[in-house]
Amino acid sequence: MTALLTFRDAIARHAHGDGTFATALPGVTLIRCASPTLPMPVIYEPTVCFVAQGRKRAALGERVFHYDPASYLVATVGLPVMGAVVEASEAAPYLCMQLDLDPALLGELTLQHPRPLPAAMDDSAGLTLGAMTSPLLEAATRLLKLLDTPQDIAPLAPLALRELLYRLISSEHGEVFHLMARTDTRQAQIARAILWLRANYRDASRIEMLAEVAGMSRSSFHAHFKAVTAMSPLDFRGQLRMQEARRLMVGEGLDAATAGHRVGYDSPSQFSREYARLFGLPPARDAQRLRQPD
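The structure assignment produced for this chain is given below.
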């Protein structure tokens, strides 16, 4: 409990007010939220989220993950997720440290400390939970406390980051990180297809094209893509389109028809139907609600 309080206080010192805060530590972002939030779409890059206080819900397709100080969330590939803070208050705000995973460093450490991978791991979901342990919490706290002494960041942050990643790859759930570091797995093939799809989501790409990018047959690609992302390639593309359309309407003031066309929809009615199915409201009403929160 003392270690958790130290971790919580370290985040609170450097996250002033609600929001997302970049830090001087490589790959480290802090998040604070003093009240529960509506489900919001976000792209989870390969990352680990450590919660110091509060609770969050992440939905990937039909799979739902709740994480809090007893667990951490790992995203192994870039995924469109619906996230919501479900436990937070002014007295006890949601506090989180997010660590973007460095593929080169992760690869180096997994080569130095190899472990066998069960065959079934190759089809594991791109979003998963791990159990927080005392060594892992202490390593995360040591890294974060370097923000209190900025002059120590350059010489000590690389060491603290290596320790934290070592704790992750050697933990009970370390196979997830070893799998991420390999390039000869089905998950790596799907990750290549995801990167291509994220760059070309506006286009009406055929499944055969994505399967070719992944180096798989159509049927094999569809099965493995759904195992990793919990959705079909077309549903995945639809979520990417809807997230960008929402950003265009709320952030840039585009009307629904223009935003829908911008992300690849020729039919405004189809765009409106699919948008309402994902977000619960027609595009214009949803954008107005987000521009004028209660």
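Interim note for the steering committee: Strands lie at 19-22, 28-33, 40-44, 47-53, 55-60, 63-67, 71-75, 79-87, 94-100, 127-131. The mean pLDDT is 92.
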